[in-house]
Structures are given as C-alpha cells and as structure tokens.
Design goal:
heterodimer, A: mainly alpha, 14 helices, 71% helix, B: mainly alpha, two-stranded parallel ribbon, 5% strand
Amino acid sequence: MPRTLALLLAGVVACYGLNWFLSEFIEVVYVDYVNLIGLAIILAVGLNVVNGLTGQFSIGHAGFMAVGAFVGAMASILFTYGEIAAGPLAFAGLGSFLFCLLLSGLAAGALGVLVGAPALRLRGDYLAIATLGFGEITRILLTAQDSLGGPTGLKRIPKMPLLPGTETWDGGTSVFWIYLFVFLVVGLAVRLQRSTFGRAMIAIRENELAAETMGVPSARLKVVAFVFGAFFAGIAGALYAHYQHSVRPDDFTSVRSIEVIVMLVLGGLGSVTGAIAGAVVVTLLPQLLRPLEEAMGIDGLSMVVYALLLIVMMVFRPQGIFGQRELSLKLLRGLIPGRRGGKTP
Amino acid sequence: MAEVSLTTEVLQYVTNGVAKGSTYALMAVGYTLVYGVLQLINFAHAEVYMLGSYFAWYQAKWAGYLPDSKGARAETVPLYMVALFVAGAMAACALAGMLIERLAYRPLRNAGRLAPLITAIGVSLLLQYGGQVVFGTEPKLFPTFAETVVYDAGGVKIPNTNIYIVVTSLVLMLGLTFFVNKTRPGAAMRACSHDMRTARLMGVNVNATISLTFAIGSALAAVAGVLVAMDQPAITPLMGVRIGLKAFVAAVVGGIGSIPGAALGGLLLGVSESVVSGLWKPVYSEAVAFVFLIVVLLVKPSGILGKSVREKV
C-alpha cells in the first residue's frame, strides 16, 4: 500500500511538472496534440482490456465516451452555473469537477453492464456488430434529447479547475488532468494484466471453453473487462467535453470507435505499450503530414497519406508495432548487441 | 390538400421504403458475399458504392449531360444512356473491387482476422479522403431520368424512378441467385465459403473465385450507387458511409452469408425506416436499423435466414 501511495503521489507530481513544462516552453498548438494524445491513450488502454486482454471484440467505445461526455458536461454546467445560459466560460470547482468525472465514469460503466450482460453472450464478429449497434443507438438517442441540446449538443462547458500555482499558466490545467487519468488507467491496466484477474482474462481470450473448465468465471470477467473499458471511456468523454468546452452527439460516431480499434491493432493488440504507441501514431500522424500537404498545396493530402500508411503498416506488420510484447527494461536490454535480454539461462 | 387516410399514408411510406430497401439489399449482397467467403467485414464496400456513382457522373459529363454552371437542375438523360452509364460504372467498380482485394486483403489472407479488418478500414479512409481530393468536397449534381412520371395507385404516389430501382434490383438479385446456385463459378463460390481449404484441394481456383466475389459485389454496389444518385441528385465523397453501415446491418439482420437474407434484411430495413421516419421522427429512423440489429442478434445471432452453427467441443 505505501508503495502504491508513493507511486500515485509521484504520478501527480509528474503530471503537474509536465503541465508546467508544456505551458512554459511549448506552443499551444503542440500542447493541443499532447492533450489529444492523452485522451486517445485513455480510450485505447481502456479498450485494450476488453479487446486485447479478454479478446472480446467491441466497436462501441464511442457510445460510452458519449454518455460520459454528456453526463459529465451537463453535471458540470449545472454545478458551475446552475443553469444553461450564455456568458463567459468559468472554471469548474475542484470538488464538483472530480465528482462530475466520477459520475460520468459510473454512468458509462453502468451502461457497460447494461450492454455487456446481454451482448457478451455473442461471440466474435457478432459481438462486434452488436456493440457497434449499441454505440450508434446511444448517439442517436442523444441527438434526439432536446434537454441535452439535441444535435448541436452542449456548449459553454466549464474549464478544468485550477490548482495552486497554476493561475498564470496560459494553457490551463488540461494537461495535468488528462495525464493524471492516463497515469491511472495505464497503472491499473498494467496491474490488472499481471493479476489473477488479468491472467484469467487472457485465458478467456486464448480459449474460453478451456478457461471455463479451469474454473474461470468467463461471463463475469467479460462484464468486468467491459465495465473497465466503459468507465474510462466515460471519463475520457468528460475530460474531452471539459477540454473542448462543447460536445455534439456527432463527435461520437462509429468512426471514432473504429479509430480506437485501429490504434489497438496498429500498436499490437493485447499490449499496453502497443495501445499507447497506437494512440500516439493515430493521433499524431495526420498532424505530422500537414507540412507535406501544405508543401504540395493539395487540400486533404495528409489524410490520404495517413490512410495509405495505415494499409502499408498493416500489410507489412500484421501483428502491430509491438505485437503482444510490452516495452520493458528486458526488451531494451535485448536490443543491446551481445546480450540476451532477460532470457539468461 | 386533400385529407389522406392513415392506410394510404402508411402504404405510401411502405412503397417508398421498398425502393430504399432495394438499394440497401443490393449493397448488403456485397457485404454478405465477401463475409461468406473471407469472414471479412469489407468496410471499403461503401466507398465502392460511392465510386460507382462518381464513375457514372463522369460518364454523364463526357456524354454532355451535365448541369449548367448556375447549378440548375441537370439535364435529363434518356433511359438507354442510363443503362450505358450503369454498365460502365459496374465494370469500373468490379475492377476497383478486385484491385482492392488484390492489394489490401490478399497479402493478409493468412494473418488472422484483425489485420485485414484494419486494412479494410484503411482502404475505406483512403477512398473517402482520396475522393475528396480528386472529386472535391462539394456535392455534385447528378443528372436525372428522362421523364419523371408519378403514378397514382389509389392515392399512393409511385414515381417511375422507384419502379426502375425496384425492378433493376429484383432482376439483379434473381440473376445473382441463379448464378450462385446453378453455374460452375457459383458452385466454386459456395465451395469457398463452405471450406476454403477443401475447395482448394478439390481443384477450385480460390484466388480467382475470391476475385470474382469482389467483382460481383462491387458491380452491384455500383448499380446501387447510380440508382441512389439518380434518385437524390447530389453525390459526395462521403455518401457511402451511412448507407454502407446500414446495408451491412441489413446483411447481418437477414443472416450474413445468405443472399436471400441480404435481400430480406435490406427490404425490412428500408420499409421500417421509411415508416418510422414518416409516422414518427426522422431522427429515430436512423436508430431503426440498429434496434433491429440488436433484437435479431440477441434472439437469433445468425440472422433471420442464416444457418446457426453449433460450436463443436
């Protein structure tokens, strides 16, 4: 326990430091990329527990994100302003912000149970298609909710709360808050992967029938994995809403769910490092290709090249960047010539 | 305006829905054929449909049937020219479909199920963004049929375009059913979808058969593309996204791998969407497809006409 606590404290300090560094030395445009990458990591690492670890193919992640975003945004608006009205943006209070995040995570998690319990009876592609359906229905129902702004969604969502000493930072505290949750989800995912739960989940992925025979409660664990992913997708949604200050139901189409899948498979399904790498590549690649687009003078070229690269990467490395391996000291040691990493007899 | 009885109103929505559903069915067949053979959700199929309508648009442009510079309604096209455009679009899309399979899916045939899925998404994105670069992002007006006649059947209005859509789809579906069930290449397709390895051992040219599957599916998508474009005269590079998802759902609802299932699923979806959107709220019609999907998957996961496969222990 003290070790976990110390780690947590170190994480908080690191996020604070990162935020200070970025707002002090880096241009706002690039800080935006950093934030978007952070949000993508939360989504990808959360979904990796479902898709990568437990082997349940889900393409409805955007639906959970949408629920989290709208629940969190609405709660935060009500806490901060008391009503939906025009006016300047305000900062959310620290307590209410954390409460809203928790609320959105719980709402998405509850939906995860609701969707997961019946849907996880399905296997393979059928499960994937069902989750896709749930995601789309969620979005369409949100579009039809006039109390949540209908198709135009919610605007004037408060800014993320300030911390002591951050009043003068021009980028605000979004980096701190987003990366705090990146830290949490990565830490939990790594812990989970190494725990009995995680091993049991991997067993389900490898052979569900065999796992059940060995006494793994596969139905329950599948729901647990699903809820884990949904919970963090909800939090990512709420963070996204507070970061962008506005959300529309159309921010969460199936295209976004598919994007998260692409991150996972590109990075290497089943590896936390892979999920992070995939999130970074998929978020950053189109931006890195922008200069090329401007140099050539063809609008939209960056996305064309991005799609091409995606195909080429998959054709030449179908197992993803990391495969199922994790980036660890062992792997790094293996890169040093003349030494066998980790596998000393 | 005269008072319209509820029955007439519903019948009107149903007839509109049949036309819409026919185009879904044409698209759904493409998904179902490819899934049947490769167990791959061919995300790029929706973009082949988009390509089909653009191919037809360019043919119309070369033949001189373009809307004038003021963006007024396009000139009308005689029926035999439409048939020509459709044939051209079918050929071009068949080629495009085979090319996509050859370049993006065949190299990954033995790499598991996920990698080809991602390249399918990649191809889909490539064609969407590539389409925006090549064709431009602004919607393009599509020329319409020679004479739009609206028939009146006891208060239910049936435009002749809808009749063309339904008849064309029906003929193509019947032709496809005949092809798959009664010809040798059709038998090869069925053999591949049943068991690819055994089919290869029996002397079936698997690669050629898969190419053929993509060619047929893509040609049908092209027909759907032209028919829809004629009906709602603007086309955009992103026009495939929505109908693609729905047509895929239709294929699953009807029972993926089954051609009659795809037709049934498409019609079911088209009709119920049209009725819901007419009697209720258009927003909800978007959800109809997915509600259908969930219900069918939970009750009979293999779809209405699909065979259920028992898992061997």
